[in-house]
Specification:
Helix content: 40-55%
Bound molecules: pyridoxal-5'-phosphate
Distance between the termini: 41 Å
Strand content: 15-25%
Shape: globular
Structural class: alpha/beta
Low-confidence stretches: none
Number of helices: 14
Order of helices and strands: EHHHEHEHEHEEEHEEEHHHHEEHEEHH
Largest sheet: 7 strands, mixed
């Protein structure tokens, strides 16, 4: 393998660059997960994570990936064969729908064009038509990582209320939590699904469910078979800082550090920083002469930008060249968007200079790969960042 000096730029939209503070925090010896030191750690992270979700209710932390947390959201709140309304925002919404089907639920998918977020009007219409309340949950992806499009969760909550429908609202924030404004309680969300490896700046390995009282009541009633993901088994031990099985102790050390870091910066500042880097990235993309995938300026993602390239351009060859020459990883186009886009992750432990390094790497890659573009995208971003404090 070729040696690269300096630090790798991990600019896929998650996993993100894990800061040294978190790597160091995770390097402490693993402790007895039934002992008093663990209890203090457990209490600290289980309490400290709540404001990151914008909730006062329990947040359940599983050793597992985001996919596991998706499953937990479904199997705790639904009964066998229940209908769940989903919206095709992109690759991840489609995967969640496939999972619902495999688990024996009945997903009803509203088609989307992969350039817009979930449409609140279409959701309201589908719920109004469901007069006998067959649909038990509406499940949407807040930030569709395959397209760089966010869905307007408060508008979707309003759509459910306007329809007078009792469905639960389940939201995937795997690539938005800790990067893009999100309020589990204030937005009336019933289950928020998240993962450790994006805005929380941790390695992969933790999955989260923030839960409303209504979701907890549904979990008490649900007859869906479940074991590992059962919230009920978690909540008792969690109340005392413990877990029902061996937890991912060293990731929890990292989580404690991540919570401290987000609080030291201040969540408002974290969100503003991501918004600003996303705007600078879009300016660069447009200056190069490319289009961003997101077609609605109210739905731009602040954690990643998916860049649509002309049909004559192979974005994967560009990514390979950038990896080889500049040691930077960018995200590939997924499923429908394979070969049509590349994705720039600008989330997590990131600042103006890391953004400029990222965009410079893309621009140098475009030149080296001989891709027709206009120079000056990095300069456009630089001018924007320099003018904005
Ligand atoms: C929006 C979204 N949902 C779900 C997932 C799946 O999460 P994981 O890969 O951690 O299982 C991802 C992963 O990138 C994602 O971005």
């Amino acid at each position: 393998m070729q040696y690269h000096s300096g630090r790798h730029f991990l600019q896929i939209p998650g996993p993100t660059n894990v800061p040294d503070r978190i790597l160091h925090a995770m390097s402490y010896p693993t402790i007895d997960h039934r002992g008093p030191d663990f209890q203090a750690l457990g209490e600290r992270v289980l309490e400290g994570i709540k404001p990151i979700f914008g909730t006062r209710n329990p947040v359940i932390i599983f050793p597992g990936s985001g996919t596991g947390a998706w499953e937990a959201a479904l199997v705790n709140t639904l009964d066998p064969g229940d209908a769940v309304l989903m919206f095709e925002t992109g690759h991840f919404a489609t995967l969640w729908q496939n999972m619902a089907e495999k688990l024996g639920f009945q997903p009803e998918l509203i088609d989307g064009d992969w350039r817009h977020g979930a449409d609140p009007e279409a959701i309201e219409k589908a719920l109004r038509e469901d007069s006998d309340h067959r649909i038990k949950a509406v499940a949407v992806v807040h930030n569709e990582t395959s397209t760089g499009v966010t869905s307007r969760i408060p508008a979707i909550r309003k759509a459910i209320d306007n329809a007078g429908h009792p469905a639960l609202l389940l939201v995937d924030t795997i690539s938005s939590l800790g990067s893009i404004r999100y309020e589990h309680d204030a937005w009336g969300v019933d289950v928020t699904v998240a993962g450790s490896q994006k805005g929380l700046m941790l390695p992969p390995g933790l999955g989260f469910n923030a839960v409303s009282d209504k979701a907890l009541a549904a979990a008490e009633r649900s007859s869906q078979p479940r074991s590992y993901w059962d919230w009920r088994d978690m909540l008792g031990p969690n109340a005392k800082g413990f877990f029902p099985y061996t937890p991912a102790t060293n990731l929890l050390y990292g989580l404690r550090e991540a919570i401290d870091m987000l609080n030291e910066e201040g969540l408002e500042h974290v969100f503003a920083r991501h918004d600003r880097h996303a705007e600078a990235t879009r300016r660069a993309v447009r200056a190069w002469g490319f289009e961003v995938v997101c077609a609605n300026d109210e739905e731009y993602s602040s954690s990643l930008t998916a860049v649509l390239v002309p049909e004559s351009v192979d974005p994967d060859a560009l990514r390979r060249r950038i990896l080889q020459d500049f040691d930077m990883s960018l995200g590939a186009g997924l499923s429908k968007l394979a070969g049509r886009v590349f994705r720039i992750g600008h989330l997590g432990d990131f600042n103006d200079l890391t953004l400029m390094g990222t965009l410079s790497g893309v621009e140098m890659g475009l030149k080296r790969a001989g891709i027709d573009h206009t120079s000056g995208g990095a300069q456009a971003a630089l001018d924007y960042l320099a003018d904005q404090q």
